[in-house]
């Protein structure tokens, strides 16, 4: 009987200490976890960049604030990148009018500009192909594997990262619809 | 942080590799000590296989039912290898239910079965925390400490390392070869593991920088861990006899 009583008392004490720790380790409302910090990880602000498109125009990520953005880092020699590009095009066509932008950042520092342009022309891609000539964007996004895709909401916050591929069209559709719900909210 | 390891032309996703390694090593440890819990290794592997397959099918079906419109244009995506097309929560529930049915059909005692898989769970917990360290997930709040790590643009509590150390200590304390474990009652081994695991989660979650928050700034994982801890302590209390030694 004594063992049982001791156990019950100990359990209650443990639970009281646990409850106190929950109270003490609350997160103050103004100090949200990422708190506007920039990092290529879900919950953080997407690193900003300005790149030239294959058509010679300049595109800045922060100018697209208010739109849902897919940033796809790719290279023309990368087989899964080539497989998922038509899926990206389908999703872009389906959701562009609702506020979706796709930025296909070609890792030109590890690719050939001509090959990238030729590939996008072959597929009839209508979203901008950005050229990361000196690899700055790849470094800012800590690119480890091709392709890598970032789903960025209207506030410029990364909501999801998909490393590797190819991504299925269904996966893209669900991720985009979740981003667009946030756009409309 | 090392999300990808390049081996020649192959890019190995380190977090996934660590999880697979953890499952393999954990099952090997459970198998080595299975006789102590009155089960056969064949039954253990069949149970794990049934649990895994039902979990995968359940997770994909749940995702399909949740987002049917996403698959209408591409039915072949139902069989896609994309890990993002799974509902892990529903998959886990389906896996548990199917495993319970399988265990009942094979007349496996619940407590002994849970005890038998405890070493596997303890090893898996270490692998999971190491996978978080590799991916940079489950990161800590910013802190300037001598042992802080630089992650996602700030000096932070190395919560993944804290949790790995906690999981290692739990495995060390509950190593299946110890005499202590031989004296446990059926179910007590699993309950002690669960109690220590949820208690460490409750404490270490307080240092996390990516917690899901409830109104008032309370951390959801801590509330769930506290409730689980209460259940585990109550269940262990039930194993203690009402009359102690005279």
Task: Give a verbal description of the structure.
The complex is a heterodimer of chains A (185) and B (246). Chain A has five helices and seven strands; from the N terminus they run αβββαβαβαββα. Chain A has 185 residues and is α/β, with parallel strands linked by helices. Chain A has one domain (42-184): Glutaredoxin (3-Layer(aba) Sandwich). In chain A, helix 2 (79-95) crosses helix 5. Chain A is elongated, with a radius of gyration of 22 Å. Chain B is mostly helical and 246 residues long. Chain B has a domain at 40-107. Chain B has nine helices and four strands; from the N terminus they run ββαααααββαααα. Chain B has helices spanning 14-32, 41-66, 68-71, 88-105, 110-135, 159-173, 179-182, 188-204, 220-239, and strands at residues 4-7, 10-13, 149-151, 154-156. Chain B has a two-stranded antiparallel sheet. Chain B has a two-stranded antiparallel sheet with strand order 3-4. In chain B, strand 3 and strand 4 form a beta hairpin. In chain B, helix 1 packs antiparallel against helix 5 (110-135) and helix 6 (159-173) runs antiparallel to helix 8 (188-204). The interface between A and B is large, with 43 and 49 residues.
